Amino acid sequence: MFEPWLERVTKFEYNPEKSFFSILVPTSDTVRYKFLLDTLLCNSYNVLISGDTGVGKSVITSDYLINADQEKYVSAFINFSGKTTSKNLKDAFESKLEKKRKTLLGPPGGKKMIFFIDDVNMPQYDEYFSQPPVELLRQTIDSKGFYDLERLIFKKVKDTMFVTACAPPGGGRNVVTPRLFRHFNMVWVPNLSKKSMELIFSSILRGFLSSGSGSVLEGYSEMVVKASVEIYEKTIKDFLPTPTKSHYTFNLRDLSKVVQGILEIQHRNLEDKEMLVSIWAHEIFRVFRDRLISTQDADKFNEIVMKFMQKYLSIDWQKEEFVDIMFGDFDSGPDRDYVKLNAPEALVPRLSEFLESYNVSSTTPMHLVFFNDAIYHLTRISRILRSQRGNALLVGVGGSGRRSLATLAGHMQDMTCFSIEISKNYREKEWHEDLKSLLFSVGAEEQQKVFIFSDSQILKESFLEDINNILNAGEVPNMFGQDEYDNIVETLRPRAKQEGKENKDEILHLFVTLCRQNLHITLAFSPVGEKFRERCRQFPSIINCCTIDWYQKWPPEALYSVADRFFTEKESELSITEYKESLCRMAVEIHKSAGKEAEHYFEELRRRTYTTPKSYLDLIKCYLEMMTEQRKIVPDKIARYSQGLRLLAQIKTMVDQLQVTLTKLRPEIDKKEAETQQLVIDLEKRQKSAAETEKVFKTEAEESQKLFDQVQELKQG
Description:
- A hairpin with a 4-residue loop joins strand 6 (145-148) and strand 7 (153-157).
- The protein has a 5-stranded parallel β-sheet, with helices on both faces. A 5-stranded parallel β-sheet has the order 13-14-15-12-16.
- The protein is 56% helix and 10% strand.
- By secondary structure, the protein is α/β, with parallel strands linked by helices.
- The longest helix is centred in the last third of the chain and has 104 residues, at 613-716.
- The chain contains 22 helices and 16 strands.
């Protein structure tokens, strides 16, 4: 006898103490597919779950495996990406299966292992048009094992089944060889109907609103969800992905993030319908609008939200009343309630306190300017970090303040910021050591941390493969050694005992759960070039598991504020007070005109050049440095010339003194000169007399010599 699936649907009860990610509203669809999974796996058949992106393949399968009979089955999760290698899959097998013998791997005794491999068709083709991880998986199923290329032995795998999931080929996904899929029973999951989506999310929202002190707002849950679903479907239809908008991929995860954001508010702050609509609009904007890359797209989305707000919620607000609405927990006192924030200008003193607090405790102080756009981005990052499994993808050109704002937002949430330090010899080994330290601190020591990672730190694409695994599963397969796992187990054992978890597998599962709970990854990527688009396609978790915040060009008021801050710091030193306003306007105009010329350059030569906030800051710094240098040159010249004049004056004084002395000594000098002349005359006379005498002596000498010669001759004769 057959019975309708609806009769098997259990009643959903909302539990406010339960994690949002563990909530699953039962529907006829989830009951149907869980039944199929249970029937196939109980009979030892491998299963392939296929369907379009965002239909709930991973959620349904994960929920089934988590709630499966723990006496019969153990499960492990593996996520494939465009850069997954066969070694990654081998490491996952060896880390999740027990080593029975040297050549035998298997689950714990008396149980069966179920591997859930998500995005199985993501690995790229190699030069032989094969997918190495897929081929290793095929070999494991075909031959009941795989070859260990390091030890050159064949390792058998027993009592293991596989559940795989994938979307149809396209958008980075490839066609998988039929030699693998012939081992699987395929189950197609169609797109959720509009009615099913409304049922799921209205059940959660109704349960949340009814659990408050009053149930006045409970009746609005269906209208809020209907408006959300309509906006979701309209967004998918109107904002299609293109080469420049490759991240315009929306799925049910985004819709669930809207409901998750509404659940962040405390009932005591949810005063009336207007407050409910305010936080709903805020979450809609944060999830959908913040990823849009242009003001034209953002304006179009604002019109869509206003249309459905009027249609379903009967709220006739002007656009200016809700497009820039902000919620946060950093301006609500010690309770840190998630409340509606004041205008950006009113938040500057509070944010300045946080910045000063950070600079006092940090060895690398920051000097930030809180213009409106910076405050908006700061509140968005802060919202992401405070949410469960909140990870951020900040997309903007260099110098837009992504890392600085993420660091300050982490400090505002009382989290420690972590970032790798790239050195000349930094390789994959050092990268894994950093990840081990990070995951141990958040998983075993339960520290709250923000991992800030930028595209300039991607030395190898395997870095992103590990990030993709952490985002999707909370771990990197086979990264920890056996002694490190033992250390993790011993560190977490007291905490695990409190939750009634005793064996090693349960403690390691708790470790992964805590990693996902306490670690918030913030990626700072640049949209320039092809790399961003390729990485979004190859590593889907970057988009699916992160909330995107797209940094637009700085508006003129932001440019002016930054210039004013820099010039104010130097105005007294450079004596530019009366010119400061003109200098600020000039800097803004130069930057804007450079941007226009860059667009003109692209139109003519089809070559892109960028005027980034960093180039704007470099312009101001260059001016201040040159001004400081020029201001030093003139005083130096004045000092040098003044010194020369002082020396000339001293020499003139000395010359005048010598002239006076010379005048006084003139008579004596004349007398001495006359005496000298007379002495010269006397000397000349004496020289003449001496010459005559010398002549006489010479004559006499010659005569004497003659006589001497004659005497000598006589002697000889």
